[in-house]
Specification:
The protein is α+β, with helices and mostly antiparallel strands. Helices cover 53% and strands 11% of the residues. A hairpin with a 2-residue loop joins strand 1 and strand 2. Helix 21 runs parallel beside helix 23. The longest helix is centred in the C-terminal third of the chain and has 29 residues. The chain is globular, with a radius of gyration of 28 Å.
Length: 596
Amino acid sequence: MQFQREFIDRIRREVPIESYISRFVPLQKRGRNMVGLCPFHQEKSPSFNVSVDKQFYHCFGCKASGDLFQFVMSYERVDFQRAKEILSEYSGIPIQEKAKEEVERTENLYKVNKKALLFFQENLRGPQGLAAREYLNSRDLGEEIQKSFQLGYAPGGYNHLTGKVFNTKEEIRAALEVGLIRESEKGKEPYDFFRDRIMFPVFDLSGRVIAFSGRILGPGKESKYVNSPASSIFDKGRTFYHLHQAKESIQKSRTSILVEGYLDVIGLVDKGLENTVACMGTAVTENHIRTMKKFSDKFLLVLDGDSAGRKGALHAAELCLKEALDCFVILLPEGKDPFDLSKELNRQELHKLLENQIPASSFVVEELLDKADSRALPEKKRRALDNLYQFLKGFNRDSDKEFFLSLGARRLGISMDAVLRDYKGGGAKFASPGSDNNKDKSAKRVSGPNPAEKCEREIIALLVKANHLFRFSEELSGLEFLDSKSAFLWDFIYTRYASEEEVSPASVISSEIPNEFKESIAPFLISEADMSPEDSVKVFRGLLNQQKLFVIDKRMEELDSGSPIDDPEHFTKLAYYKTEKAKLLEFIRSENSGVR
């Protein structure tokens, strides 16, 4: 939206990030950057850097990164809309009101969803909805529940909405945007997206219809559920089904219950558990957890006891722990879901079952250790600890890390002192067995990027800081990235560049990509060194050559550890890689000496 883009750009131009942050964090000049004690974690030595040139911050301690808007959201613990208001009040720069056309367009989206809801409800009550009503009744979802959750039915066929519900061009455009209808590839009229499905409407916190989920009647080859696509009024990565109705109960109890499906919600609510919600056709995200923190202090994850349920519970529990939200896991008997149990058990029995809560910390450690205990073989204990060490990278507080390490040590029957030394030394996967001299080296090593990862992240950082280097994009597209984070970042920034969107340190750090990718590149973006275009090309070409060497070395290493040395193909491939490496080294020497 143009008005919002203009406000954001003006704030970034006219409000120096160092001026704003210094109101809360004492900053001292160090080179062209400013440094201070991080406001997001406790530290004695300053590791919080603010780049004056690039207008973003990065903490080398807790890895917090962002632009001015992200700082306001994190420091003030507010959402993006409120952060804009705070910066508008601080700077005197007004947030432009939505243009009249924009307001009308958004209202049309709500309007067509409302009209569709009434149409679906009418169909459920009419002759066409007989099979749907019979199915719902067979699952003890009678008329009262149908009305309470405003269920409906989308009839079979392709042209009900365009022919009976949406009549104007504006409504057709709005219905296309929210995904109620789809464009025909054959040049015909748009067709209905939801067909022969029970319809579950999804409401925002104001009670407006923002999306639908459609369920097939009984078993079938099609997907059990299909959901509305994302739109300007529906973000499934933040939306909970039933939160509008459940928020009052959640706020009173300060406890929320998360289940997997819509019928699970209905079943538990029918048994008096009004504070039950479900995610909208997606795994739990950080934004889901942050949304719930506004209403709830405690999160109960009620999921199936099978492997998929445990995996989902592990993911959600990790996010809750990292966001400091109290979380408990309730694993149901395998083969049973909350809806089944809501029909098999009376209210008292169901509430009793939900009292069997496992603290998320205990559950996560048990899952990460993969059922290893004190009786496990050393190899399994080592793998278990590596899983735990990897998990702890997402935590900033040393006390949190030591707590989880102590749980792991106790379960594996290893002394806490040994586990802590191993973790601080880089973990078992970084140590080379059989060498006493390696002990001191591993103790000093930090779990930062290895040389190949460092090289590839420097390549990405240079592209972000010097966009003229995108002229090498064809060569970059052919690179075999060894670092998965660098590969993701390359795809991300090239897509932005090709779409003529801004590619800069601030835009990358403030983007919607997951934090792990921002944390991997931020230290390389904060560096002070500025280069002329000619020097940046020279450095960039050197990094590309170095990256190719890393790939060749990696392939030779894999070859030596893979195929038997007496395999003729082994010697052929090894000779090829050695020749390619020699050619590349010769090319690098000639470039460095200026010989062409």
